[in-house]
Amino acid sequence: MGTDSSLASNPWLVCLDDRFGLIHQIRNKQCRLYSLGLGSDDIHFETSMANNGCEVHRFDPSVKSAHILESHRFWHHRVSIDWRDPHPAVAAQKTHSNTRKLRSILDEFGHHKIDVLKADLESAEWKVLENLILEDVLDQIGQLIFEIHLHWPGFEVSGNDSSVVRFWYSLFKELEWKNFRLFYSYKDLSKPQRFLKKDILNASSCYTLSWVNTRWK
């Protein structure tokens, strides 16, 4: 969502093409958005989607209580979405935090689909995306909006520059094979011009990429 004049400054956009179902879900008040974050106070996109009729679930470890219902359609959950579930012994010691895989959250909430999945995970996005692919969660998602970070490989991503880029590329190819098509990209010009710890002119270390599942109805 967004007007033409707002596109240059808006990293968070959804695809409302009639072919892919989201616009119909919004009109029927049956849209569901999951937002994965790590301490961001900017919830304008989530609020807008809730105001337009979407059921919004925001997962962020900075949320003050376990579950907060801000409005009729906007939930906040004190949960950090990760690429692995914590060991039970470790989880028992952390009474004020909760780290879960997205698959575990879907099973717990009884949700069988997410119309829009937004993620701003500060370099954890690569491993989370890999987990969604490995556990076949992508079939339950209509659109992906991921902020990606390129200034370093990311959490638990290792190897030389070539192997890191191949890993990133393999994830994008998996999305393509799963019928996800990139419909929008946003370059954050406020971020350093760095790529894998090297200065790169006219680049950015941070992009927001948006895909639509072309088989989503």
How would you describe what is shown here?
- By secondary structure, the protein is an alpha/beta fold.
- Helices cover 25% and strands 29% of the residues.
- The protein is built from six helices and twelve strands.
- The protein has helices at 22-27, 44-51, 88-93, 102-109, 125-134, 161-177, and strands at 32-37, 55-59, 67-71, 74-77, 80-82, 99-101, 114-120, 141-149, 180-187, 194-195, 198-199, 206-213.
- The strands form three sheets. It has an eight-stranded mixed β-sheet, with helices on both faces.
- The protein is globular.
- The two termini are 18 Å apart.
- The mean pLDDT is 89.
Quickly list its features:
6 helices, single chain, alpha/beta, 25% helix, 217 residues
Give a brief outline of the structure.
This protein is an alpha/beta fold and 217 residues long. 25% of the residues lie in helices and 29% in strands.
Segments where pLDDT lies below 50 for 5+ residues? none
Radius of gyration computed on alpha carbons: 17 Å
Note the total helix count.
6
Largest sheet: spatial strand order = 3-4-2-1-7-8-12-9
Please give the alpha-carbon distance between the first and last residues: 18 Å
Give the tally of β-strands: 12
Mean pLDDT score? 89
Largest sheet: 8 strands, mixed
Question: How much β-strand is present in the residues?
Answer: 25-35%
